[in-house]
Please model this.
Amino acid sequence: MPQLEKATRPAAGRRKKKNPFSHYVEQFVFILLAFLVLYPLLFVLMTSVKTNSDVILHPFTINTFEPMNYITAWNTGKVGSYLLNSVITTVITLIFQVVIIVLAAYAFGKLKPWGHNLLLSLLLMTMFVTSEMTTVPNYITVRDMGLMGTRWSLIVPYVASGLITGTYILTNFVRELPKELDEAARIDGAGIFKIMWKVDLPMITPALATLVIFNFNGVWSEFYWALIVVKDEALKTLPLGLINFQSQFTSNYGVLTAGLVILTVPVIVVYLFFSRYFIAGISAGAVKG
Amino acid sequence: MLRKPMKLDTQRKILGYFFLIPIVVLLTVFMFYPIVKSVVMSFTNWSGMTDNWKWVGFKNYIRIFTDMPEYWNAMKVNVVYALIATAVQLTLGFIMAVMVIGMRPRWQNFYKIALYLPVIIPAAAISVMWRYIYTPEYGLINQFLRAVGLDSLCRAWTADPSTALGAVIVTNTWRYAGFTMVLYYVAMLDIPKDVMESAQIDGANRWHQIRYFYLPLTRGTTEINLILTITGCLRAFDIFYLLTAGGPGTSTKVVSMWIMETAFQSYKYGRALAMSIVLFLIVVLTMAVSRIILTPRGKE
Model:
């Protein structure tokens, strides 16, 4: 970015007047960047409600309104069924993950059984394992467990794959919980489960929210494993379904993009709704980790 | 309440083990066991379909290094991709973070959220979307080029060997630049405001701020970003598979794609596992080397 090197102006602090030229250049570059990021999304959204002739004649603007695209995608393109599969798979996976992670984080951060540090370091090593190493053996494990052809062929490995990062983040939160509250509750006669449920859990809710959003995103978007294990049309999740869909509606851009919107809207809604947790989660997970 | 603290402590520790059962079982079955099995079976000629297999010693590994040019061609694609994509993504991410941090809080929020948006969009959606953008006939890019009179530049972006890899890099940058940006942004938030302000009063301009504050003080983040991006690129699968399927020819065929084909189409699991392990070792080695290069010297 040349304008940064060229900027010889004095600091643009609040106390000093801004140099109008470099200020405008910076503003311009930024608006351009935001445009480049957001326009493709807007483009898809627009295309999804246009007739095919409008798509071809007026690519950049919108002149028709064709909500039928969504109905075609839903019925003919079976997006409805893919969506249902994605919702079921994601919800079940997240419930299992939350329970397992909370228990583990509580053990590592609070109960600290003998050898907990060693065990945590051992488990943390799995963070560096690449999916290439585990895919083939996991395929066989899932097959031998008799899970092929059922939703569990997706859910069980998904649950396992999202555990360690979540446990690590949450353990750090649990560790920093104030001990005084626990002791006060204990003196009042509360048992360990009551303290956990009533005192500690509410305090780690924000961290838990971060974790749920991240794992939601991971499971909802997962594609590689699903591609390998799911052969049954009735079990396909949205990312996998969309690939079918792409070959089915190659030149019907309206319907194709309608399918895209249906796949993407849930993640965007969840993201916008919880965006502050997202940023917090990134800093907790990546920077401090 | 009247129990001795020791006793209570012991109870809690035992309860701790119970709490750890689910995670330990799942990670053992789906992480530790597969690693051990991968390593062991990579020394066999196992097809994956039957239980018949024979030890073949280092044959699978020797084959990778002596008689598998396609593996190394794919690795070359990965490496070129990793170098360019990482350089572009880190530079853009850093610049965006510097720009965002200098804004008023309301705009900071807007840009932070907007620029991170592509990161959360599923790979399948991103690839379908970008395939459409790159379509020769009605794609966004060619339509735009025609609209501004640059018809001669129009091409089938993902089917032309000279632009296919570039197309993947552009898509990947669009997807992940926001991630790099947010990591830098979060690190920059930790730089005390009064330090920056007193530097400004002393006449530090924007370039000085970047050179003497933002760049050195986000060094740890650069390291994390670099490692995440490079290792991500070396293992890349989804965006390549979905956007170009390795084509045209094998010009964008990455290592993961060969592994998947060897395992699930040629049914040579043993060989595919050896290929995975070599890739894994290369990723780990890259990580270690980047750490050594990036760790400041003379601080022992």
